[in-house]
Amino acid sequence: PPHVPPSFQEDSSFSCGCRLYYARNPTDIAPVEWAPCAFSNLPSLSGTTCKQMVVNFPGLASGNPIFGVSFDALDSLPRYGVRRVYELGSERRGTMDLAVDENGAIASAVATTGNNATTCVLGGYANLPVFRGDEVGVSLSDENHPTPYHVAAYTQTPSELALRYEDKVSWALDVDVQRDHTLLVELAPTITTFAVPGPGTSGKFMISPSGSPQPYNGGSPVVGPDAIFFNRFGAGRTTAIFRWVAPGPQEPWRVEPDPGTKAASSFATDGKEMVWLENGFGDASAPSDLSIPFTHRYLVTAKYGEKGAPVDPRQLTRDPGVYATDYAVYCGHAARLLEADKPDGTRYQALFLVRLTDGRNWTLESTGFEPPTQRWSWLGAVALTCDEIMVGVVGPTILPAPSASTIVRVRLDSLGPGRPAE
């Protein structure tokens, strides 16, 4: 395929029509480049030190060629993951997942041929690249496989592509990778979750059986140094946080007896500190309609104890978000994308950043993505280093064609004084 460098190694063990290619020498791929933001004069970024990823790779798809950013918060040298999307003609799109060092050098890369939305799909939680260190987690699903809806999970390093799991399911497969090379596998729509031990071992650990833990399903995994956490969702506004420590079983970590009245959500950790949201209705009675979101959300932080035990938890500040979404945490800060309501009822989208020492916070509001104000909007997941915040952005009226999306990085020390904890 034109988007795959000649030096990549081909693997067709999954399907002749769905081939994987991986970089034996990642330095064959040009480093990621950055340039000053083209929209740093917009209100929420005015006066900040902002850079955007240069989108100049041959064959990139129009629309959203850069799909989100993910982050390995447990690594001593922070790395981020980027998914590139390529036009291959005849409505086919190829993808390439990259693990990138902070200086832009490529640490690992894997690509697939891509057919369409349902065949030869490169997966991953929230459609983001999945990796730990220089090991990339890869999931494939292909409705045209000899076994329909066959799925497979691989891990890839510069020296090896290893098939780790195969199954026939009715929907899809997501993967994550732990630092000890354990592969986390989740099958949908049954939400059956396994932990597949590292190379040289056999068998698998059941984290949660089909549909478990009732009444909660789905949600994203959060990998800690010695435990895996799951932000689970139930009916309407109900949420809960579960923990798994090998060999299991999965257990409640923050599960309220009446989750329609108050509930915990949005857990994140960098292995040193942890954060989560406590959600409720303040002094008001909880409405019986579970589709009505919580009105009060507070961010809580604690030190990460053995097997994820919270040490000295404390409430930081009020979170303005209407809904629960995933936080990122690293090096003394936490951040997430959220939607919030202004006093006049107008809903807006923003990037919300909190300093963990004192709850001081910053809200970087987008200009809105609905006509007639459509200019630009935050996109995908959030990543943090000790000095910067990184996030995807989509802005068809301000980014040069054919790109409508890229990734930006903003220096934390350029954001101004922020607001005190509320």
Architecture overview:
The chain has strands spanning 9-15, 18-22, 34-36, 50-53, 66-71, 79-89, 92-101, 106-112, 121-122, 130-132, 135-142, 150-157, 160-168, 172-177, 183-188, 192-196, 205-208, 221-223, 228-233, 239-244, 251-254, 263-269, 273-280, 296-304, 310-319, 328-330, 333-341, 347-355, 361-365, 377-384, 388-394, 405-411. The protein is an all-beta fold and 422 residues long. A six-stranded antiparallel β-sheet has the order 1-2-8-7-6-5, with no helix packed on it. Strands 3-4-32-31-30 form a five-stranded antiparallel β-sheet, with no helix packed on it. Strands 9, 10, 11, 12 and 13 form a five-stranded antiparallel β-sheet that branches. A hairpin with a 5-residue loop joins β14 (172-177) and β15. It is globular. The model has no long low-confidence stretch (mean pLDDT 78).
SSE inventory with pairings:
Elements: E1 9-15, E2 18-22, E3 34-36, E4 50-53, E5 66-71, E6 79-89, E7 92-101, E8 106-112, E9 121-122, E10 130-132, E11 135-142, E12 150-157, E13 160-168, E14 172-177, E15 183-188, E16 192-196, E17 205-208, E18 221-223, E19 228-233, E20 239-244, E21 251-254, E22 263-269, E23 273-280, E24 296-304, E25 310-319, E26 328-330, E27 333-341, E28 347-355, E29 361-365, E30 377-384, E31 388-394, E32 405-411
Antiparallel strand pairs: 1-2, 2-8, 3-4, 4-32, 5-6, 6-7, 7-8, 9-11, 10-11, 11-12, 12-13, 14-15, 15-16, 16-17, 18-19, 19-20, 20-21, 22-23, 23-24, 24-25, 26-27, 27-28, 28-29, 30-31, 31-32
